[in-house]
Each structure stands twice: as C-alpha cells, then as structure tokens.
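Consider a typical record:
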Amino acid sequence: MRALLVRLHRWLGLGTAAFLFLAGLTGAVIAWDHELDAALNPSFYRADTAGAPLPALTLANRVEAADPRAQISYMPLSVEPGHTFVVRVEPRLDPKTGEPFALGYNQVAMDPVTGVEQGRRMWGAPSLARLNLIPFLYQLHYTLFLPTKMGIDLGVWTMGVVGMVWLLDGFIAIVLAFPNLKSWRKSLAFRVKRGGYALTFDLHRSGGVWLWGLLIMVALTSISMNLGTQVVRPVVSLFSTLAPDPFRTAAPGPSLTPAETASARTRIAAMAPALGRSEGIAAPPGGLFAMPALGAYGVGYFAAGNDHGDAGLGNPWLVMNARTGEVIARQIPGRGSAGDLFIQAQFPLHSGRIAGLPGRIAMSLMGVAVATLSVTGVLIWLKKARARRKSASKPAREATSVSAEERAAG
C-alpha cells in the first residue's frame, strides 16, 4: 500500500508542480495587490486636487458621456481623501453589428473633485508594463490566461482541477510523512547543518508537515475560488441548505436596456441606505455592481476604500431588482446556514483577509512556501530518478564486463 501511495504522491506532485510554483509566487504578490498597484502607479490612484468631491453618480455619468461605447459595470459610492474615483466599465453592443464595441480598456480613474480623467487601462491584460503588472499577476494566478473554448473557461477549470489534485495529494503526503511511530520526530526536523540533499528533503517533507493544515486550507479554497459554482456549492448543498448565490440570481423581467441601466443606477443608489438599515447592516453603501443581463444591481456595504474587506467574512451585499428596488438576494457575513458561512469564508480564508493584516502576511509567506515545496519535490524526484537509472545500468555493465572476460578466456 505504501508503495502505491509513494507512486501517487510522486506523479500527482510532478503533475501539479509547475502550476503550484506559479500560483504560489503570484499569490505571495497579490496578497498586497492594492498596495503594490498604488505604489507602482501613483498617478492612477492619487488625486491631489483640494476640495469636496463631486457626487459619485455625477462622476459615473461623466465617464459614460466621455465614451458612449462604454457603460459602468462597477463604481464606488464614495472615495477616500486623496484617492481617485476608479470605476470598471464594459463595452455596449454596437447596434450595427450586434457585437460589443472594442474599447481597449475596462478601468478608468478620475479626479473626484474636478471629474478629469487621470488614466485608463485594461485590467488583467497580458502585459508587464508598470500600469498592468499587478492586474496581470492577479489574472495569471487565477486563469493562467488560458482561453475559453465552447463556453468552458480552461484557465479556471485547470486551476480548479489542480486544486483538487493538490488536496488529494496533501492527504497522501501526510500519511507518507509518518511511516511509523518511532520515526515521527524525523518528520518534524530540518537537518540544516548537513545541507545539500538532506536539507532539500527536509524542507519538502518537514516543511509540508509543519504547514499541513494551512496547505490543505489553501488547496480547498483554491477549488472554491475556481469551481465554486460547479463543484463546491453542489457538494456543500448535500450537507447544508444554501441561500441562492446573490450574483447569479435571475431577477424578474427582461435584461436592462442602456437607458434603463443608467436610470436604475440612480434609483438603486437612492434606495440603498434605507434598504441596508432595514437589513440590519451598519456600514454605508460603498459600491454598485451592475448586472443588466439579470435586470439587477448589487450593492456592497462598506466604508470608502474597504471594498475587499479588511477582516472577518467580508462585506455585506444586497442584490436588488433594478426596476422595483426589491431585494431579491442577500449575502450578509455571519448570517445563514452552516453551509452559507462556509461559502462566505472561502475568499477571506484564501486571501488571509479573514485575520486582517496578520492573515495577509501569513498568506504571502504561504505562497513562497508552496513554491518552495514544488521546487524541492522536483529536485527530490530528479535525485532519485538518477539513482534509479544508475542502479538499473549497473547490472548491465557487469554483464557486459563478464561477457568480455568470457570471450577473452575463450
């Protein structure tokens, strides 16, 4: 049985090593995506004009007026002092072709006081330019920039399957790390003084043991981040009732026209504070997420600049019928069934934000650890593969030598 587990661990590990190395290093960086992005691109994020900011809806309308091909898909409802007003946009449909316009950008930054555009970019574009670097790494972490074929996002599915293989391999690895009761101490030690292969082996085995619980958690949440709808929610629903996914809940009625989207934005923004209070949400409305195809708007409740959630299970969200303002779905941290709480915890756990700043530091270090485990696993395999080849060739050399001696004697 152990021999089978060794083979499984070897081939599952080798099959996922490159993916996990890449995911580990990019994950270590994007734990600080906002801070690093702002540091690299101050002109995109910093606004220096003194004075009171214009209303958020006014700024959003200016974005759309400046380029009628674009429509707001996400906008903040307030900004931190000294920060730009950053919105996400998506292309409208070209009435002549029925296809989306080619915008060439999906994010716009504006001075909130003057309403002047300070920059635009295609968030997630495959580019190493300073303006695109951090979004590029974020997109690489989750999708590998693989294409979508026949409606299947190959990048998301690839990383999701890697997460499932990694989860299985994690349980195999912990069994192999403790072959018997007498040698358990070896699986926790690091032979630093010996260095070389001994230390490489200990970094892989003992490092994996010390971090095992966190590694399993990251593997599980990796599946949730990529295949939440396809895999995780169906599995969790077998054990616990789940509330509808607020961002995939179809609202009554047809999709919104461009004119309805703009008017609904104003209506929902006006209704959001009272609706939040009626749901017992203390935080103010912080952002609007348009879902015109579903005839709905999502409203996030958070203070300016806290759109990712600094700690805990994240921010509350309400999804509203864009025409009537009726709340049709809700995701309020800490509320719901055990399954709902499990689903709510996935991104905060994966990003480390559930524990605030210490959690993000831990996840950044975990990214480096995952990359290290991947490299040391490959190095161990190479070392043993060379030893196996050498051992296999030794009898052949001996047989050749004996044959030569026999021929000489004859």
